[in-house]
Amino acid sequence: MLIHENILMENGASIKNFKPKEIIFEEGNLVHYYFQIHQGEVKINNYNADGTEFIHNILGDGQSLGESSLFNEKPYPTNSIAISDCKILCLPKNDFFKLLKEKPEISVAVIHYISERMYYKMIMIKNNSVKNPVEKVWTLLNYLKSFQFNKDAFSFQIRHTRQELACLTGLAVETVIRSVKILEKEHKLLIQNGKIFI
DNA sequence: ACATTAACTGTTA
DNA sequence: TAACAGTTAATGT
Which bases of chain C come closer than 7 Å to a protein CB? Predict the structure, then answer.
């Protein structure tokens, strides 16, 4: 986890529960808290003018939400919405900065985390400007697997739905399905009762 | 609730 | 103009 939960609790954090589809913060909101997921899954997204959704990222246990907005004076550029039942640690902004001052190793951990997020952004911004949808899906799936210790072929199950993969790549669900089938034909991944293994 | 398929439409190489 | 991605709608798991 990014910051140890005991340290967060000792420094003024509280735990808040969110139901699926509940909003943690919204585009345009002012930034008052450092958020860290204790348990659950959260998506960071935007809605286009036509209502279609673009998902920037899906985050899980131990990861933080919208932390980069704590360091500029700008409101949130994205929404943050619970996917599953979530318990989120909420640390008021002032307490967060006090903690960073007192414990420089936490500052470094936060910088490391933001750096990791930026790395992903670079990969995905390039990926999403690629034309070939099969390549888009393949790069995304490989990125998702890159965090696993087990690098063996077909050892990692993709837990995202086809719709989520579509929103992460800007493709239509049907195109994701077609692309995944092509990748299966090329023996790059395995499909077992609808579940993707890479 | 999610995945798949088919038939159709528009865009583009 | 053939290929291919998005749209819509129906069907399957």
Answer: 4-9, 13
